[in-house]
Protein backbone atom coordinates (compact mmCIF):
# COMPACT_ATOMS: atom_id res chain seq x y z
CA UNK A 1 0.00 0.00 0.00
CA UNK A 2 1.27 3.46 -0.87
CA UNK A 3 1.79 6.00 1.89
CA UNK A 4 -1.36 7.92 2.88
CA UNK A 5 -1.34 11.48 1.56
CA UNK A 6 -2.34 14.09 4.13
CA UNK A 7 -3.42 17.65 3.29
CA UNK A 8 -2.65 20.50 5.68
CA UNK A 9 -5.46 22.89 4.77
CA UNK A 10 -4.87 26.58 5.49
CA UNK A 11 -8.34 27.54 6.72
CA UNK A 12 -8.11 31.34 6.51
CA UNK A 13 -7.49 33.64 3.55
CA UNK A 14 -7.19 37.04 5.28
CA UNK A 15 -4.13 39.14 4.41
CA UNK A 16 -3.31 39.38 8.13
CA UNK A 17 -3.95 35.72 8.92
CA UNK A 18 -2.02 33.83 11.59
CA UNK A 19 -2.65 30.49 9.88
CA UNK A 20 0.67 30.36 8.04
CA UNK A 21 2.53 30.10 11.35
CA UNK A 22 0.82 26.95 12.68
CA UNK A 23 0.61 25.26 9.29
CA UNK A 24 4.36 25.69 8.65
CA UNK A 25 5.10 24.44 12.18
CA UNK A 26 2.90 21.34 11.96
CA UNK A 27 4.03 20.64 8.39
CA UNK A 28 7.62 20.33 9.65
CA UNK A 29 6.52 17.91 12.37
CA UNK A 30 4.32 15.91 9.98
CA UNK A 31 7.11 15.59 7.42
CA UNK A 32 9.28 13.96 10.09
CA UNK A 33 6.79 11.06 10.10
CA UNK A 34 8.14 8.79 7.36
CA UNK A 35 4.93 6.80 6.86
CA UNK A 36 2.87 9.65 5.37
CA UNK A 37 3.17 12.19 2.57
CA UNK A 38 2.21 15.77 3.40
CA UNK A 39 1.09 18.70 1.25
CA UNK A 40 0.02 22.20 2.24
CA UNK A 41 -3.24 23.23 0.54
CA UNK A 42 -3.97 26.96 0.72
CA UNK A 43 -7.55 28.13 0.22
CA UNK A 44 -6.14 31.30 -1.33
CA UNK A 45 -5.28 29.13 -4.34
CA UNK A 46 -8.96 28.15 -4.67
CA UNK A 47 -10.98 31.40 -4.65
CA UNK A 48 -14.37 29.74 -4.37
CA UNK A 49 -17.49 31.89 -4.64
CA UNK A 50 -19.96 31.63 -1.78
CA UNK A 51 -21.88 28.43 -2.46
CA UNK A 52 -24.24 29.15 -5.34
CA UNK A 53 -24.77 25.81 -7.07
CA UNK A 54 -28.21 24.33 -7.73
CA UNK A 55 -27.41 21.57 -5.21
CA UNK A 56 -24.55 19.85 -3.44
CA UNK A 57 -22.04 18.14 -5.71
CA UNK A 58 -23.19 14.94 -4.01
CA UNK A 59 -26.26 15.22 -6.28
CA UNK A 60 -25.39 17.57 -9.17
CA UNK A 61 -21.99 18.32 -10.73
CA UNK A 62 -20.71 21.78 -9.79
CA UNK A 63 -20.67 24.41 -12.54
CA UNK A 64 -17.91 26.55 -11.03
CA UNK A 65 -14.51 25.83 -12.58
CA UNK A 66 -12.82 26.63 -9.27
CA UNK A 67 -15.14 24.21 -7.49
CA UNK A 68 -14.28 21.45 -9.94
CA UNK A 69 -10.58 22.12 -9.44
CA UNK A 70 -11.08 22.12 -5.66
CA UNK A 71 -12.94 18.80 -5.73
CA UNK A 72 -10.15 17.19 -7.75
CA UNK A 73 -7.59 18.46 -5.24
CA UNK A 74 -9.57 17.16 -2.24
CA UNK A 75 -9.93 13.76 -3.94
CA UNK A 76 -6.12 13.36 -4.02
CA UNK A 77 -5.84 12.99 -0.24
CA UNK A 78 -6.37 10.25 2.34
CA UNK A 79 -6.72 12.59 5.32
CA UNK A 80 -6.84 16.24 6.32
CA UNK A 81 -5.58 18.55 9.04
CA UNK A 82 -7.31 21.94 8.98
CA UNK A 83 -6.16 25.14 10.65
CA UNK A 84 -9.20 26.50 12.47
CA UNK A 85 -9.24 30.18 13.36
CA UNK A 86 -12.13 31.07 15.66
CA UNK A 87 -14.33 34.01 14.68
CA UNK A 88 -17.30 34.79 16.95
CA UNK A 89 -17.25 31.29 18.51
CA UNK A 90 -17.15 29.56 15.12
CA UNK A 91 -14.93 28.65 12.17
CA UNK A 92 -14.07 30.92 9.27
CA UNK A 93 -16.71 31.28 6.57
CA UNK A 94 -14.15 30.49 3.88
CA UNK A 95 -13.34 27.10 5.44
CA UNK A 96 -16.98 26.10 5.89
CA UNK A 97 -17.64 27.18 2.30
CA UNK A 98 -14.75 25.05 1.05
CA UNK A 99 -16.10 22.05 2.92
CA UNK A 100 -19.53 22.62 1.34
CA UNK A 101 -18.06 22.73 -2.16
CA UNK A 102 -17.00 19.07 -2.09
CA UNK A 103 -18.96 15.98 -1.07
CA UNK A 104 -17.91 12.42 -1.89
CA UNK A 105 -14.28 13.57 -2.05
CA UNK A 106 -14.30 13.92 1.76
CA UNK A 107 -16.02 10.60 2.48
CA UNK A 108 -14.39 7.96 4.70
CA UNK A 109 -11.27 10.01 5.40
CA UNK A 110 -9.98 11.36 8.74
CA UNK A 111 -10.11 15.03 9.72
CA UNK A 112 -8.00 16.71 12.39
CA UNK A 113 -7.76 20.32 13.53
CA UNK A 114 -5.25 22.91 14.72
CA UNK A 115 -7.34 25.56 16.46
CA UNK A 116 -6.38 29.00 17.68
CA UNK A 117 -8.20 31.93 19.20
CA UNK A 118 -9.98 32.71 22.46
CA UNK A 119 -10.02 29.19 23.91
CA UNK A 120 -7.60 27.67 21.46
CA UNK A 121 -10.23 27.60 18.74
CA UNK A 122 -12.11 24.90 20.67
CA UNK A 123 -15.58 26.16 19.72
CA UNK A 124 -14.64 26.42 16.05
CA UNK A 125 -13.17 22.91 16.15
CA UNK A 126 -16.30 21.46 17.77
CA UNK A 127 -18.45 22.90 14.98
CA UNK A 128 -16.06 21.66 12.31
CA UNK A 129 -16.19 18.17 13.79
CA UNK A 130 -19.98 18.17 13.31
CA UNK A 131 -19.59 19.34 9.71
CA UNK A 132 -17.00 16.60 9.16
CA UNK A 133 -19.39 13.91 10.42
CA UNK A 134 -22.07 15.08 7.98
CA UNK A 135 -19.48 14.79 5.19
CA UNK A 136 -18.86 11.16 6.28
CA UNK A 137 -15.40 11.96 7.59
CA UNK A 138 -13.82 10.53 10.74
CA UNK A 139 -12.87 13.49 12.98
CA UNK A 140 -10.10 12.71 15.43
CA UNK A 141 -10.38 13.06 19.19
CA UNK A 142 -6.92 14.60 19.38
CA UNK A 143 -6.53 18.22 18.28
CA UNK A 144 -4.09 21.09 18.77
CA UNK A 145 -5.43 24.14 20.63
CA UNK A 146 -3.22 27.24 20.61
CA UNK A 147 -4.70 29.16 23.54
CA UNK A 148 -4.68 32.94 23.78
CA UNK A 149 -1.53 33.27 25.91
CA UNK A 150 0.50 31.08 23.54
CA UNK A 151 -1.06 32.78 20.51
CA UNK A 152 -0.04 36.24 21.74
CA UNK A 153 3.46 35.12 22.70
CA UNK A 154 4.02 33.76 19.19
CA UNK A 155 2.30 36.65 17.45
CA UNK A 156 4.42 39.17 19.34
CA UNK A 157 7.63 37.28 18.58
CA UNK A 158 8.34 36.25 22.17
CA UNK A 159 8.22 32.53 21.34
CA UNK A 160 7.93 30.15 18.42
CA UNK A 161 5.35 27.36 18.39
CA UNK A 162 8.23 24.87 18.35
CA UNK A 163 9.34 26.27 21.73
CA UNK A 164 6.05 25.29 23.41
CA UNK A 165 6.39 21.65 24.41
CA UNK A 166 2.74 20.89 25.17
CA UNK A 167 1.85 22.04 21.63
CA UNK A 168 4.58 19.84 20.13
CA UNK A 169 3.18 16.88 22.06
CA UNK A 170 -0.35 17.63 20.88
CA UNK A 171 0.83 18.00 17.28
CA UNK A 172 2.61 14.65 17.31
CA UNK A 173 -0.43 13.02 18.90
CA UNK A 174 -2.70 14.45 16.24
CA UNK A 175 -0.44 13.33 13.41
CA UNK A 176 -0.16 9.81 14.82
CA UNK A 177 -3.94 9.57 15.11
CA UNK A 178 -4.53 10.97 11.61
CA UNK A 179 -1.95 8.53 10.23
CA UNK A 180 -3.60 5.51 11.89
CA UNK A 181 -7.05 6.42 10.59
CA UNK A 182 -5.73 7.35 7.14
CA UNK A 183 -4.08 3.94 6.77
CA UNK A 184 -7.10 2.03 8.03
CA UNK A 185 -9.64 3.92 5.94
CA UNK A 186 -7.46 3.79 2.82
CA UNK A 187 -7.48 -0.01 3.04
CA UNK A 188 -11.25 -0.01 3.57
CA UNK A 189 -11.92 2.34 0.63
CA UNK A 190 -9.72 0.24 -1.63
CA UNK A 191 -11.62 -2.88 -0.55
CA UNK A 192 -14.89 -1.13 -1.44
CA UNK A 193 -13.55 -0.37 -4.94
CA UNK A 194 -12.54 -4.01 -5.46
CA UNK A 195 -15.95 -5.18 -4.24
CA UNK A 196 -17.72 -2.85 -6.69
CA UNK A 197 -15.51 -4.01 -9.52
CA UNK A 198 -16.29 -7.64 -8.68
CA UNK A 199 -20.02 -6.90 -8.78
CA UNK A 200 -19.68 -5.27 -12.17
CA UNK A 201 -17.63 -8.12 -13.63
From TrEMBL:
Domain NADPH-dependent FMN reductase-like: residue ranges? 4-143
InterPro entries in the record: Flavoprotein-like_sf, FMN_Rdtase-like_dom, NAD(P)H-dep_reductase
What is one cellular component GO term in this UniProt entry?
A: cytosol
Query: Where would one find coiled-coil regions in this protein?
Result: none
What Gene3D superfamilies does this protein's entry cite?
3.40.50.360
One annotated GO molecular function is: oxidoreductase activity
Q: What protein name is recorded for this chain?
A: NAD(P)H-dependent FMN reductase
Q: Which organism is it from?
A: Aminobacter aganoensis
Amino acid sequence: MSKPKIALVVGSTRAARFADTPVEWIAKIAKSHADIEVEIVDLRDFPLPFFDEVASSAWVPSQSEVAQRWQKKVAEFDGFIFTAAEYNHGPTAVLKNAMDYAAKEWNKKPAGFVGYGGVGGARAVEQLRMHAVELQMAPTKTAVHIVWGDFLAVRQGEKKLADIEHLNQAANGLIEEITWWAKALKVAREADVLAEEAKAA
